[in-house]
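Handout, page 2. Input:
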Amino acid sequence: MTPRAVETRGLSKSFAGLAAVSNLDLILEKGEMLCLVGPDGAGKTTAVRMLSGIIRPTSGTARLFGYDLEREISLIKPHIGYMSQSFTLYGDLTVDENIEFFAEIHELPRYQERREELLAFTRLTPFRRRLAERLSGGMKQKLALACTLIHRPDLLLLDEPTTGVDVVSRREFWGILQGLLETGITILMTTPYLDEAERANRVALMNHGTLAVADSPAKVKALLKYPVIEAVCARPREAVAVLKGMPEVLDVQILGDRLHLIIRDMDLAGPAVQRRLRESGITLERWQRISPSLENVFISLTQADEARA
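Output:
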């Protein structure tokens, strides 16, 4: 049987007695992309740092490409590329020199051809003589990725690589990741952007150190059994205040001039919500059921966790 890229069983990590990650069971097949999402403090970074070998688990097991994370880390390291939230580039070195430095760390005797490939792939060739400190945020992230890829890893561990970069740079970065997937590389990525997670083969939702669900985006969205409504009205902020106390409304979010509501059902809750708005003098311009988003599901799951707590 071909070993999986990542397989964890009961993987846990505590700091000073506080659980950061609890009983993480996660599977990542070769050539697959999995996005790990969750709020700050959910345990995403801790999970990735354990898989990279930077910190040791408190308990549980993990195997990467069939190798045991605890006993065979030296055999694992050539297979992985880890890009942290604060990936260290050397500002006083050029793009070329930064890639060369990481090639030397990995003891690569002949890296020049690989560097040319990565510069072309990340579209950094015109900037190869520029100091890293003079690159834009998006270009710095692409350079960090090039440095991470210099030794041809089989698994990329990316911790929020697009945080803090502009929308255009995020799109370009995702284009690069899609190109990598076509080469057969495996990617595990944490992200705060749920719209990004929709592009992955699978998405894993974490909250308070535990894994809530891990499945394809379509199957995760199918977990939400309540209707999601998009409502457009003239005074959305006032409408939110009116609706938040209603037992028929499980969640309401404002997005510009429209509201996204999760209600208990269409037959009873729908008319009750519309009636309450009319009684408050708020006119509805549009009321329609829409497909749930990952954000809708995530909010629903986290609220259920809070209610149980």
